[in-house]
Amino acid sequence: MNNKTLLDKLDRKLGRFAIRNLMLIIVIITAAVWLVDTLVYKQTEVLISQYLYFDRALILQGEVWRVITFIFVPDEWNLAYFAISMYFYWLIGNALEDEWGAFRFGVFYLCGALGAIASGFIMGYTTNYYLNLSLFLAFAFLNPNYQVLMFFFFPVKVKYLAMLDGLLILLGFIGGGWIERAALLMAIANLILFFWRDVIRMLSWRRRGWKYKKQREREDREFLFPEEVEEREHKRAEKEEKRRQKEEKRRKDDDYPFEL
Q1: Could you please report the per-residue DSSP string of 126-182?
Q2: Which of 108, 210, 214, 255 has the CA that lies 20 to 30 A from 179?
């Protein structure tokens, strides 16, 4: 039986063309944009990133590079927060590449980027925020018990951070505008595309584990409380006898529908 997916087959044929250390490249370019913006703004009060963000109207006027360059626009300008976010993006991106391989990770990021671009053309504007968030959610799904140090002191498992992000995403979807909703839906669609098999498999395992647990509990109870088992069997036998008698009476009524 061949369990290979289409992505596995593509990886086998095209994997040699995959970009290694993709997240490191993205982080380096983003850091360069942040540095140039910081230096140039001090001199001219002009942000270079204003020529890089996604804007449908400007793209249709000929600034087609914005279709790609919005990926490298920093989402944080404070040096400390920016350094932490870049390190974290590199960490999870590198972990996903190690887990999946360069080709699969590249396809995941490409699909996420295409989803963000599609939402941008539909709504007129988009950012890389939900694209980067989808990386974290993918990492949390694959490594739920991985611990990170919040504020460098408090160890927290990423599954709890993912739950918090899920709550914030829900609130953002309810209270945000359609630009955020469109970008969010595209990011979620990308996650579903890559993880639906894993979700079904995980639910199947949990269902089998739940049934096995219930069976073990029942067997343990029968061993510890045999009188309950005897009483239950007695009630089951009485119920079966009543059912048999009712069925026999029904057959007699069918055979002799009229009294003589």
Answers
A1: E-SHHHHHHHHHHHHHH-TT-EEEETTTEEEEHHHHHHHHHHHHHHHHHHS-HHHHH
A2: 108
Residue whose C-alpha is closest to residue 213's, from 205, 202, 201, 223: 205
Contacts (Cβ under 8 Å, ≥6 apart) of 14: 103
Per-residue pLDDT of the chain (260 residues; tens, 9 = 90+): 455 777 778 888 888 888 899 999 999 999 999 999 999 888 888 888 999 999 999 999 999 999 999 999 998 888 888 998 899 899 999 999 998 999 999 999 999 999 999 999 999 999 999 999 899 999 988 888 888 777 667 788 888 888 888 888 888 788 878 888 898 899 889 988 888 777 777 667 666 666 666 666 565 555 545 666 566 667 777 788 788 888 777 776 666 554 44
Domain boundaries, the chain: 17-206, 207-255
Length of the chain, please? 260
Q: Which pairs from 59-67 meet CB under 8 Å and 24+ separation?
A: 67/117
